[in-house]
Amino acid sequence: MFKYAKKHGASLSSIHMIGASLGAHISGFIGASLKGSIGRITALDPAGPQFTGTPPEDRLDSTDAQFVDVLHTDIDVLGFRKPLGHIDFYVNGGLDQPGCPKTIFSGESYFTCDHERAVLLYLDSVNGMCVSRAFPCSSYKDFLDGNCLKCDQFGAAGCPVVGYDVTEWKDVLLRLGQTTAFFTTNAKSPFCTSAYTVDMMLANEDVDWGYITVKLYGNGEEAVATIVSNKSAKSNTETKLFAQFDKDIQSVEEVSLKFFTWNIFKLKYKFSVLQIRLTHLQSKERPLCLYDILLQENKEFTFSPVLC
């Protein structure tokens, strides 16, 4: 079919193949047969069984098209674990997807939900439901710890978006050779989350964080993020945390915080916070701040932030 199209004047570089599971590798075989001349292959959770450990000629790889982008959503069961393209997106670490069944009693969906999520995520990007940006990182843990939040290598364009429009980053991704990137999602469409850093400076004793729930309010909407952290907050030292909210609030009017520590056998903490700063990672707006407050464990505190 492709040779027929080429014979009648079609450009192979204009062809975009999208393959899910086994279809991702089939797309690679077709691309390889055409010496990598087709424009793009998008692989949606490429199949792992029967392909893991095989050489590049027996599976999809980055030479099968001029540009190859890959979404991984089920690397521990049906999907392929290692990078295969010019950019490989690991959704929620490529493992268990939010909203998918956790027990075998859910039937067939227990085995297929994570694997099929890649297709739904890509459809979200095509339909313009929302925009997800991914952060290049060496591991999912480093990503969750907030150690990979800069995208200087991509210039003014910032972190690459996931899905259909990632070709806007094609040139720089080709120069980089291979990029592994991570992002998180909601349990259902629209899947995209909104990323912030939360910087806190304490005034008194050190605190071992457990988890913190942060809520943003604005225009009658509420966005929620739960930060799970093993970091220790040192007094008079800024601690950076990474928060991913379930939606993007365009104009934040109020913020609430509630925290819990891992120290379950101690009395509930009360501590003084010199400053809290919330910075939206995809916006050029100034960060939001609050100064000199007293927080108590397991008690929600709501405040109206100011521009830092």
Which features does this protein show?
alpha+beta, Rossmann fold, Lipoxygenase-1, six-stranded mixed β-sheet, 16% helix, elongated
Sum this structure up briefly.
With 308 residues, the chain is an alpha+beta fold. Helices cover 16% and strands 32% of the residues.
Helix/strand layout:
Layout: H1 2-7, E1 16-20, H2 22-33, E2 40-44, E3 68-72, E4 87-91, H3 109-127, E5 135-136, H4 140-144, H5 170-176, E6 179-183, E7 194-202, E8 207-218, E9 221-228, E10 232-233, E11 238-245, E12 254-261, E13 270-280, E14 288-296, E15 301-303, E16 306-307
Parallel strand pairs: 1-2, 2-3, 3-4, 4-6
Antiparallel strand pairs: 5-6, 7-11, 7-13, 8-9, 8-10, 8-12, 12-15, 13-14, 14-16
Write up this protein.
The strands form 3 sheets. A 6-stranded mixed β-sheet has the order 1-2-3-4-6-5. Strands 11-7-13-14-16 form a 5-stranded antiparallel β-sheet, with no helix packed on it. Strands 8, 9, 10, 12 and 15 form a 5-stranded antiparallel β-sheet that branches. By secondary structure, it is α+β, with helices and mostly antiparallel strands. The chain is elongated and about 70 Å long. The longest helix is centred in the middle third of the chain and has 19 residues, at 109-127. It is built from 5 helices and 16 strands. It folds into 2 domains: 2-183, Rossmann fold; 194-307, Sandwich (Lipoxygenase-1), CATH 2.60.60.20. The termini are far apart.
